[in-house]
Amino acid sequence: GSSLLTGPEGLMAKERENLKRLKCLRRYRQRYGVEALLHRQLKERRMLATDGAAQQAHTTRSSQRCLAFVDDVRCSNQSLPMTRHCLTHICQDTNQTLFKPCQGSEEVPCNKPVPVSLSEEPCCPLHLRLPPQMYVPEQVLAVPEELGAAPTDLYLSAAELQPTESLPLEFSD
């Protein structure tokens, strides 16, 4: 900062005072001495604690498997985050409230887990009931027979549309 403020003629008293203030503001939040040493040690301890916790959480998380049993064989799928069951068996957990089994239809029952939504009965995409169609296409009106067959003598042929020499050019259209 001082190299920018100094010129060939030097600094005036007011400029020296402003330069002092600027240097003080640059160091305002920096730690010095024992305080800086303790702060650096605290940051290092926090980094080690969070790195160790993140690695431990990762290894614990990667080893979690679903607790459900199918035909006396434990499910080998990964469990969902913060749960003990996979997506297929999440409805076996009595404490969870995010999923419900699909009700299916009368003919084909379905117990596939479906996320709870705003609807009363959540369904999987296979059993989703669509709302009634709101758009009704307009019916095409039938053309009466007498309007459909137009007389051909009303139309002029290409030869009749050509200008003749007897008429002036402005009247030929």
Report on this model:
The structure is a single chain. This protein has 173 residues and is mostly helical. Among the domains are: 37 residues, no CATH class; 32 residues, no CATH class. It is built from five helices and four strands; from the N terminus they run αααββββαα. It has a two-stranded antiparallel ribbon with strand order 1-2. Strand 1 and strand 2 form a beta hairpin. The longest helix has 30 residues. The protein is flat. The mean pLDDT is 77.
List the helices and strands and how they pair.
Layout: H1 2-5, H2 13-26, H3 34-63, E1 69-70, E2 73-74, E3 99-101, E4 113-115, H4 145-148, H5 158-161
Antiparallel strand pairs: 1-2, 3-4
Note the main attributes of this structure.
about 170 residues, mainly alpha, two-stranded antiparallel ribbon, two-stranded antiparallel sheet, 4 strands, about 30% helix
